[in-house]
Amino acid sequence: MPPMLEITNLHVSADGREILKGVDLVVNAGEVHAIMGPNGSGKSTLAQALAGHPAYVITQGSVRYEGRDLLDMDPEERAQAGVFLAFQYPVAIRGVTNAYFLRSALNAIRKVRGEPELDPMDFIQVLEEKLRAIGWDDSFIHRPVNEGFSGGEKKRNEILQMAVLEPKLAVLDETDSGLDIDALQTVAEAVNRLRSPSRATVVVTHYQRLLNYIVPDFVHVLVDGRIARSGDKALALELEEKGYDWVKPEAAVA
Amino acid sequence: MTPAAGVVERYLDEFRRFAGNGAGAAPSWLQELRQAGIERFAAVGFPTTRQEEWRLTDTAPLARTPFTLPDAAVTRIPSELVEHLVGGTAGARLVFVDGVLQPEWSVRSGLPAGLKLGSLSDALRNEGDWVASHLGRYAGIERNPFTALNAAFVRDGAFVRVARGVSVERPIDLLFLASGAARGRMIHPRNLIVLEREAQATVVETYAPLDAAQHLTNAVTEFVMEEGARGRHVRIQRESGAAFHMATSQSYQGKDSDFSSCSLAFGAALSRHDVHAVLDGVGAQLLLNGLSVLAGRQHVDYHTTIDHARPHGESHELFNGILDDHARGVFNGRIIVRPGAQQTDSKQTNNNVLLSDTARADSQPQLEIYADDVKCTHGATIGPLDPNALFYLKTRGVGAEAARQLLTYGFAADIVSRIDVPEVRQRLDQLVRARLAA
Hints:
By secondary structure, chain A is of the alpha/beta class. Chain A is about 35% helix and about 25% strand.
């Protein structure tokens, strides 16, 4: 069986500037990987490129998802195939309620899977079940998507979407930034609940803090567009203690 | 090209025919109103694009078309059309065809005490003096040439009067159906809605065609709220694609009154709607919203004026335009804060989404502030659907076309969701979905 995600020598540019300069990464089902790194190292670029953002141009390398060429798929095809990106900056959609948006998304995915579409009544049941499972109330499901949401509400909303859409590969882009410790724990719990031998999670973060709650199997440090160092969860603690400057010299040598 | 003198002459001929045809029996004040209207129109003629107020809306195609007043012949009305247009509601309704009330289609049974609902022509007969104290007092003939023309041909329309302290629970539907007939007809509905002190009512005006023929609707509605009254107003313009639709909606609010108005423009080849709101009482509140959904070569022009005449007034205005193909949207939002209207809080927003490269929108705020302790903001956007929002939806599995539809719907729902009368909101939501699916 091919790995869930196999990134080989990935080079990505934006606005004519090369940001990723040859990333290699293999993620298998059941694993949680953390990608850490200083600001500007390319963490978010990697996340956005995996989701298929048109502003990020792949100049070299390949990405295979369950053996398929991920880069050849439209963003919606990637989502329909089970790839999910939790945005660092979720987008507001005026006039469209969370419930309506989530039902549209879930039905688009169900259709591709050959499952029947859910009508509003059935969907509300699914949604309420997910909300209960992650311990949230339904206060923001009838508000327009992310419109007027606080930073923490937007991040929670990303996790709710993930819970409803049940992706195979979840990429969380700085989901911890701007969250207080209570919100961080709630988000982490929701992510942990989705951990299973058939799914994988890539957690992109600047801080080690989140990894106390979502314990990774592997930690990678991205510096200047390349993975400078990989290890287990101890690497995150070491980084926390010594700072990112500690890995930089090695990156320069590499 | 300026409209030829012969164009105006046609309307003068039509007026002479109208005045000699039973309208002459009207009370003198009404004859004077009509006379003043036609004289004003004769003096100013049709507007031209050289006039600032009409710079972006060319009425020459309208001026070129010979329109005549409809004869009394009643066209057959399909009952399913009426039910469809009022959304199957069982509330009170008035149905007009070519400006004339159709009693057999109207529903006036079980009206609450204190609600008078009928034709303006009946009200002129039954309480002419009271009507005289309101009709034409708010929407003056100087407003624009079409308001003058409407005054010249005042004959009928809807009359709604809600007595002091009375709350009308169910929405009142006013349905104006137009038929084009062989020669183009012009219809000048004139509506008077008065909510007396602390009265409450919801009024839904709908303008719809009976056929695809070209006609001219030139409607004027005066909506008056006395002290503490609460008015809810929805206006749906879904004329045929060949029609011309000229309109003035004039509201006038007393102290502590609360008015919420939503105007939808879906139809007509060319439409111009002047929405003029006067807040002439301390602490008056206004929510003034609008939505245009246009395609083909449709043209809509919303000129809104919010006139804060007294202190502590509050107005929120949001107009959204959804323009496809070669459609053109014009928005002009004027806000006046009169001297002494301190503590006014006014917010205006106009957002336009262009669904094609050939659609066009123009947005012009116009703030005239003569008081120094006020809060006034305005903003406008014109552009395609937000690419970041499209990408966001796609990353959730929604296909490109469905994502565009969802965002477009959201743009419309942003307006409709602000209607606080649930059954009216649901009707409009259905209407918007059907329009966007068309």
